[in-house]
Amino acid sequence: MAGKIVILTGAGLSAESGLGTFRDEDGLWARHRIEDVATPQGFARNPQLVHDFYNARRVQAADASLNPAHLALAQLQEHWPDEVVIVTQNVDGLHEKAGAQALHMHGELSRARCAACDATWQAPPQMTPQTPCPACHSPAARPDVVWFGEIPYHMDQIADHLADCSLFAAIGTSGQVYPAAGFVQEARAAGASTIEINLEITDVSRAFDSRRIGPASQAVPDWVASLLA
């Protein structure tokens, strides 16, 4: 088997690195409403709260350790004879820490963006509503993450990759949030084989040709080993 592989990764990939999802019953997300910390409206109402939340997430991500799933995907990207495109919903930067390259459709915790002029830059560890933009100097810095109600990044590029891949894999994602939830249909329409790797069956499992159920740290390395064998 050969051909381009497109891999969509979600929060389940990093859960074993100690980074919880917003569906977990404990952790950072459990102490806040999504509407307050992950929407443009929430930022407009209380920018300090939003900055405090993402400052904490930034520290948490910086301290997170790689797990075997991150390392396995980096190995696949390095050794597969054709292109391996990782598209991630994660903002934690762990793909890069493992040595892989990824398209960050939901942005990156390590980046900041100006709400006034749209410039982006490396985020400092702590930001406040007074943090100035280095380009226009407005006190309009925000996390460079895509909030609910905003358009994800790289969508045209992702669509092109889905249209000419031979294999599409979704790893650690619930399949409940669009547009990513529709990637499997796009890949199948283009003739790709599809596989879901997740901790449990999801609402979209039936849309995939095959699936592997189990912790990402075990299921992903096993899958990569089978591809590279």
From TrEMBL:
- For NAD(+), which residues are the binding ones? 10-29, 89-92, 172-174, 216
SUPFAM superfamilies given for it?
DHS-like NAD/FAD-binding domain (SSF52467)
Where found?
Cytoplasm
Record flagged with keyword Cytoplasm: yes
Any matching Pfam family: SIR2
Query: How many and how are cofactors bound here?
Result: Binds 1 zinc ion per subunit.
Q: What does this protein's UniProt record list under function?
A: NAD-dependent lysine deacetylase and desuccinylase that specifically removes acetyl and succinyl groups on target proteins. Modulates the activities of several proteins which are inactive in their acylated form.
Q: Which residues bind substrate?
A: 54, 57
The GO terms this record gives for MF are: NAD-dependent protein lysine deacetylase activity
Query: What is this protein identified as?
Result: NAD-dependent protein deacylase
Q: Which reactions is this enzyme annotated as catalysing?
A: N(6)-acetyl-L-lysyl-[protein] + NAD(+) + H2O = 2''-O-acetyl-ADP-D-ribose + nicotinamide + L-lysyl-[protein]; N(6)-succinyl-L-lysyl-[protein] + NAD(+) + H2O = 2''-O-succinyl-ADP-D-ribose + nicotinamide + L-lysyl-[protein]
Q: Which metal ions or organic cofactors does this protein require, according to UniProt? A: Zn(2+)
- Which InterPro entries does the protein's record reference? DHS-like_NAD/FAD-binding_dom (IPR029035), NAD-dep_sirtuin_deacylases (IPR050134), Sirtuin (IPR003000), Sirtuin_cat_small_dom_sf (IPR026591), Sirtuin_class_III (IPR027546), Ssirtuin_cat_dom (IPR026590)
Task: Cite the binding residues for Zn(2+).
Answer: 114, 117, 133, 136
Enzyme nomenclature, EC number = 2.3.1.286
Residue span, Deacetylase sirtuin-type domain: 1-229
Keywords, A to Z? Acyltransferase, Cytoplasm, Metal-binding, NAD, Transferase, Zinc
